[in-house]
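Hi again,

Forgot to attach this to my earlier email, sorry! This is the prediction with calcium ion bound. I've pasted everything inline since the attachment limit keeps bouncing my files.
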Amino acid sequence: MISPDYGEVMMKMYAVACLCAVALITTVSANNLVITNVSLENVTNGAADIQFDMSWDNSWRTSWTDNGGSVGVTNWDAVWVFAKYRQSGGLWKHAQLTVSNHTATGGTIIETSNDGGSHLGAFVYPAAESSGTRTCNDMAIKWNYSVGGLGGTNEVDIVIMGIEMVYIPEGSFSLGSGGTEVSRFYRYPDTSDSFVITNEGEIAVGTVTGQLYYTSGGDFGGPIPAAFPKGYGAIYCMKYEITEGQYADFLNLLDPGIANGYYPNKYDNSRHKIRETNGVYQSDAPDRACNYLSGVWILTYFDWCGLRPMSEFEFEKICRGVKSPWIDEFAWGNSSYVELTGESGVEGSGSETALPTNANVHVTTTISGPVRTGIFADAASSRVEAGAGYYGNMDLSGNLREMAVAIGRPEGRAFIDEYGDGDEYSAYPWYTPVSGRAYTSRGGAWSDTPSNIQRFRTSDRTYSDASVLYAGSSSERGARGVRTAP
Ligand SMILES: [Ca+2]
Ligand SMILES: [Ca+2]
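Structure tokens for the complex follow:
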């Protein structure tokens, strides 16, 4: 069911091109998701093909049934592809795509996002059931360059980027495992009953039999409006936590005048390895999960790449899937774990592996900081061995805490399914609640040590009502973005 992989989670590829003719191409290294040979083709009538080759390992699309055969599930992995461009060394801007006329190869579908009339990117995913390395030569996404006021003779630099995602299909799921988790959700009045979400409609919170309730934390207010993303509808979720390589790419494409304001500047603190030299940001461990991210920086990252934070309901869906809960379960679906005690191989290389070899979670006192994303998975891992969520997302329990929109305060309940617009200079509408109580964290972190292993459980809400959790940066906080499926 799960076809995990590991390694590079975002790849960038630069092309310097005249809209009327390809001028120069350079390649940036990567070890898993690889994008090469970027060129501009078919420049005509305000649109152009951004053509490229893309490949990645351990791609899958598969179907199965669960809960005694009563629920059918189809899911797949995907790459969220988007492009940035600049003129004459100016600021990088987001490339708007056309809704169609892309060129899918290698057995894939290219599906454009819908952003209120504009299109920030596209999901590339397998068209049919399959697994293994996917090779897509001469792919193209159609760039609507007239949106940026460009003409066909302007010279531009182009960078195309990909982020590995997992498709989380529409479906009912349970909140709360019925276990002993702090502040857990349950179906009133029995704290050992899960609350089942069966649609995206408004959810009442309260003490009427059958209503959603929780054991502590928050104001117990409601309802949860229909517009709040509940996890029932289909979404894509980043397969991994944001990595240092991804965050460094982001810093390098910001206005150099403001980039320093988003720079953690924590080199060698708690294994953080992003450094800055003459305005260029580089990670010495690009596949490592990126810590020291504040809430505003995370949201700016999402603004820049066209994603949004997940809700805490979505977090439980992504971990648990459609399965009936296992009491006190972790993201991999049971309540057992094997903690990481060391690493084998070259640290920061992206190919280091976990010790012991059957470890499936980073909660430890021996490695004081995050490890590379997906470290517990290889092509042969089961879900439990990989420490993966139901659909194949990695490190949901452990490594870094996962930023999520909380439902325990009005600021969080007001959240709606709204994305960044690709323009980090215009404010993302959900910045303000960072200083309030809109955001929580889920899944525990390396720093919790086994004495706080309860924080790693899928339904644990220890930080459900933290007032300033994401106001500053911390060595244990990270995030991953999601997006409602087109
Ligand atoms: Ca995590
Ligand atoms: Ca914006």
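The first strand starts at residue 10 and ends at 18. The chain has two domains: 10-168, 170-486.

That should be everything now.

G.
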